[in-house]
Amino acid sequence: MPSRAGVTSPETDRPERVTPDTAKWIDSDAALARAARGWTGVIGLDTEFQRTDTFFPIAGLYQVSCADGIWLIDPLSIEDWQPLVDVLHDPGVVKVMHACSEDLELMAHHLDCAPRGVFDTQYAHAFLSDTFSTSYANLVVHELGIELGKHQTRSDWLRRPLSQEQLHYASEDVEFLIPMYQRQRQALDDLGRLEWFAQDMYQRGVYTRTQPESYFMGVKKAWRLNERELGVLRALCAWRERQAMREDVPRNRVVWDEHLFAFAAMESLQERDVAELLPRPVARRYAGDLVMAHTKANGTRVDLLPRPLTQGQGNVTRRLRSLARECAERHEFAPELLSRKRDVEFCFRHFHDTGELSDFYHGWRFSLIGAQFKQVLTES
């Protein structure tokens, strides 16, 4: 009798194993439409993709599991994705995923879709243990006591036919999501943390694309530039982002961040300056565009970016992080839920500007650590 995802065996109380032979291959619009009608309640969801030489991820496979089995959906054959999109948009269907951020990005680009009702098993585990980024294989061992076989770290998901090893790997990636979800959801509920998790997933379960005009803020050492130079850097980065999207190549195949930084620091930019810094083929291709973007933005002013914290300010944030870690230890969840450096430093800056904690430390976090944070920040 074929095994079914999420169905436990009476002898072992573990999910029965699924082999590639039991997973259903979908390579037509009609087959997808038929299968999607049964994807209700709770489904497991994963994707395989490639992004070696492109700006955008290329879909190689979609995997779906529910109580009736596992489906492997071929993006190279399907044209009408609406049945799957309808399921993904349905808030009444829970989509159980593991480390969902890259999968959400793929679906945003490939399907123009933002799934609703996402439950991330990796993130849920952080509320139930002291580990923030547990791998899928380790979580299956922890939750279900099942050791998965070693998987290929690199695989060509665009070739056809896929190998039996690839099919087995893809099946395993969704086989255990629903039983793990059932255990985790119950554990979160028992600990009174289900609402905490839901608050975070409301933000974490949505992919937000970085806008071209915002990329400059993440460039290394951009805080060293003045208002005029930042205006130029913003324009150069925005041009490079759009160029990489048009060509569908990694951004560093166009121009590196450090080169854009160097150009932004110049009072003016000429094609000979570009030729001196960039490889000849790159300069020949993009010099005119870089000079034009630099010239157009040269009169623009952008507010200075935050400078690194002073030693005294760093002492305050280290104290806050220590308090957050102690709180996490008392409650036995991953310290990163409270004490990541970027979250604490942003909160410090936000409090300095507004007298209030950042949004990250509202909600369930405020009930645990908010009063202590406000006291330390008020006294500092």
Overview features:
DNA polymerase, domain 1, Nucleotidyltransferase, domain 5, 9% strand, flat, 49% helix, disordered N terminus, 16 helices, 6-stranded mixed β-sheet, 3 domains, alpha/beta, 380 residues
Overview in brief:
This protein is 49% helix and 9% strand.
Overview of this structure, please?
The chain is an alpha/beta fold and 380 residues long. It folds into 3 domains: 24-204, Nucleotidyltransferase, domain 5; 212-297, HRDC domain (DNA polymerase, domain 1, Orthogonal Bundle), CATH 1.10.150; 311-379, Orthogonal Bundle (DNA polymerase, domain 1). 49% of the residues lie in helices and 9% in strands. It contains 16 helices and 6 strands. The chain has helices at 29-36, 82-89, 101-110, 121-126, 136-144, 164-175, 177-190, 194-204, 227-247, 257-264, 271-277, 280-297, 311-331, 336-339, 341-354, 364-379; strands spanning 24-26, 42-50, 58-66, 69-73, 94-97, 118-120. It has a 6-stranded mixed beta sheet with strand order 1-4-3-2-5-6, with helices on both faces. A hairpin with a 2-residue loop joins strand 3 and strand 4 (69-73). Helix 5 packs across helix 7, helix 9 crosses helix 12 (280-297) and helix 11 crosses helix 12 (280-297). The chain is flat, with a radius of gyration of 24 Å.
